[in-house]
Amino acid sequence: MDVSLSIPSAPAASMLVDKDNMSDDKISIFIPRSPSNKTKPLGFQQNEASDDPPPLSAKSMTLALIKKVVAEFLGTFLLIFTVLSALIMNEAHNGALGLLGVAASAGMAVVVIVSSIFHVSGGQLNPAVSVTMAVFGHLPPAHLVPYVVAQLLGSTAASFVVKALYDPVNLGATVATVPRIGAFEAFWVEFITTFILLFVITALSTDPRAVKELIAVGAAAAVMMSALISGESTGGSMNPARTLGTAIATGTYTKIWIYIVAPPLGAIAGCGAYHALK
C-alpha cells in the first residue's frame, strides 16, 4: 500500500482524508501547518506580539526601586558592622584575629551578603561600584543617587551601632581608615586595590561568558586579597561609604579625600580595563 503525506501551506482541519483519491493502495493524509506556532512548544503558541512582557507601571517601578535601595542599605549595614566588629575584637583581644582574620571576616561577609541580595539590587554595597556601573551603563542613572545614599546611610548607621555596642576607648584609632604612609602612596594603594576589585566584579557580573555563580566568591576574594596587602598601610577601604560612615561616627577625617577620590577613579579604570579586553 502506498501512503503519501502532504502538508499544505494554509491552515486546514486537523486531519483530512482525500476521499476522491482514496483507493485500496493509496491514502493521502493532509496535516495543517501553522507558521506562527511551528517552532514553539505546547503551551506557548501565542501571537508574536504577546511575547514581550507588559510594561511596568510607574507604581511598580517605584516599588522595585525602593526594594533595591533597602537591600543596599541593609547589605552595606551588615558588611560594615561585620568589618568594624572584627577590628574591635582584634584590638580588644590583643590581635587575636590578626590581619588575616580581619580580612577573612570582610571576605566572608561579602560572600554571604552579595549572595543574598545580588538578585534584588546587584549587591553593590559601595558607592565606587555604583558610580562605575552607572558610567558604563550597567546601572540606570536614576538609580545611582538612591543607591549611594542608601550605602552611605547603611555605613553610618552601622558605625554608630558599633560605637554604642562596644564603646571602645579609642574607636577612631581602631576602626577609622587613616593612612599610615604618605598621601601620594596611599592614594595609589587605594586606586590599585579598587581597580582590582572592579576588574573582577565587571568580569563576573557583566560578561555573558562568565560564570555568574562566582560573582560573590570572586568579589570576596578580591576584597580579602586587597585587605591583606593594604590593611596595614591605608586600612584597606576601597569603599567611600566605609570610610565616610566611620569618620562621621568617630569624628576622624584625616586625609579623607584620598578615600573619597581614589576608589571611584580606580573602580572606573578597572571596569574600563576589562571592557577593553572583551
UniProtKB/TrEMBL annotation:
Q: What is its main location?
A: membrane
TM ranges are: 69-89, 95-123, 144-166, 186-204, 211-229, 256-277
Q: Where in the cell is it found?
A: Membrane
Molecular functions (GO terms):
channel activity
Record's compositionally biased regions (Polar residues)? 34-48
- Keyword annotations: Membrane, Repeat, Transmembrane, Transmembrane helix, Transport
- Report how it sits in the membrane: Multi-pass membrane protein
Chain residue ranges for the region called Disordered? 32-55
Q: Does the keyword Cytoplasm apply?
A: no
Q: Which residues form the signal peptide?
A: none
Question: Coiled coil as a keyword?
Answer: no
Give GO cellular component annotations, separated by semicolons.
membrane
PANTHER family (alphabetical): AQUAPORIN NIP2-1, AQUAPORIN NIP5-1-RELATED
**Of which family is this protein a member?**
Belongs to the MIP/aquaporin (TC 1.A.8) family.
The name on file for this protein is: Uncharacterized protein
Organism in which the protein naturally occurs: Miscanthus lutarioriparius
